[in-house]
Amino acid sequence: MIPKRLGLCARVLSRPRSSLLSRTFATQPEKPSTATETTHFGFRDVPRSEKESLVKEVFSSVASKYDVMNDAMSMGVHRLWKDEFVSSLKPGSVKVGKVTRCIDVAGGTGDIALRILDYAREKKADRDITVDLVDINPDMLKEGQKRFRKTMYHGSPQVAFHVGNAQDLGKDRFPDNTYDIYTIAFGIRNCTDIPAVLSEAYRVLKPGGVFACLEFSKVTQPVLASLYEQYSFSVIPLLGTILAGDRASYQYLVESIRKFPSQQEFARMIANAGFEVGELEDGGAWRDQWGGIASIHTGVKLA
Amino acid sequence: MSALRFRVGLTRQSIRTRISLRGTLPVCSQARHVKTPAYDGHIPLNWAENAFMAVGSAVMSLLDPRRGDMIAALGETTAGNSLYKLREQMLESPEGRRILKERPRVNTDTVDMTKLAQLPEGTFGRTYVQWLERCGVTPDTREPVHYIDDPELAYVIQRYRECHDFYHALCNLPVNVESELALKWFEFVHFGLPMAGLGAVFGPLRLDATKRARLFREYVPWALRCGASAKPLIAVYWEERWEMNVADMKRELGMWDPPEAIWSKKLSEAKKAKLRKEQANASTTPEA
Question: Cα–Cα distance between A163 and A161 in angstroms, integer?
Answer without folding.
Answer: 7
